[in-house]
Write a structure and sequence with these properties.
About 10% of the residues have low confidence. α5 crosses α6. The termini are far apart. The chain is mainly α and about 110 residues long. The chain has a domain of about 60 residues: Cytochrome Bc1 Complex, Chain D, domain 2. Helix content is about 60%, strand content about 0%. InterPro entries: Cyt_c-like_dom, Cyt_c-like_dom_sf, Cyt_C6, Cyt_C_IC. It is found in: Cellular thylakoid lumen. It comes from Dulcicalothrix desertica PCC 7102. Belongs to the cytochrome c family. PetJ subfamily.
């Protein structure tokens, strides 16, 4: 039963992610990349699969190696290689796209999503 609820929530979030656009970040390529590749699981900096492993600064600091000393590099490593339920994006996104989405995630985390 919990699986069905999670699956239903994931479908709703995916559908909403296609409809949602932010006029504030309309020209931000990192936002576009995030929306197209990450928001189905991380909409609004959350995490639909593992609730405590969000993209909020506190969680990134806790769960990403070296986040406190090399934040962008830690995020890039996670995007490229994935971990656990998160897939690797090194074969899906190019280096520039990875850097742009990492910078976007860092900026949003610093601002509190």
């Amino acid at each position: 039963m919990r699986f069905i609820h999670k699956l239903l929530l994931a479908v709703v979030i995916i559908l909403l992610s296609f409809a949602w656009t932010s006029p504030v970040f309309a020209d931000n390529n990192g936002d576009r990349i995030f929306t197209n590749n990450c928001s189905s699981c991380h909409l609004g900096g959350g995490n639909i699969l593992i609730a405590n492993k969000t993209l909020h600064k506190e969680a990134l600091s806790q769960y990403l190696d070296n986040y406190n000393t090399e934040s962008i590099q830690a995020i890039i490593h996670q995007i490229k290689n994935g971990k656990g339920a998160m897939p690797a994006f090194k074969n899906k996104l190019n280096e520039e796209e990875i850097l742009e989405v990492a910078a976007y995630v860092f900026q949003k985390a610093e601002q509190g999503w």
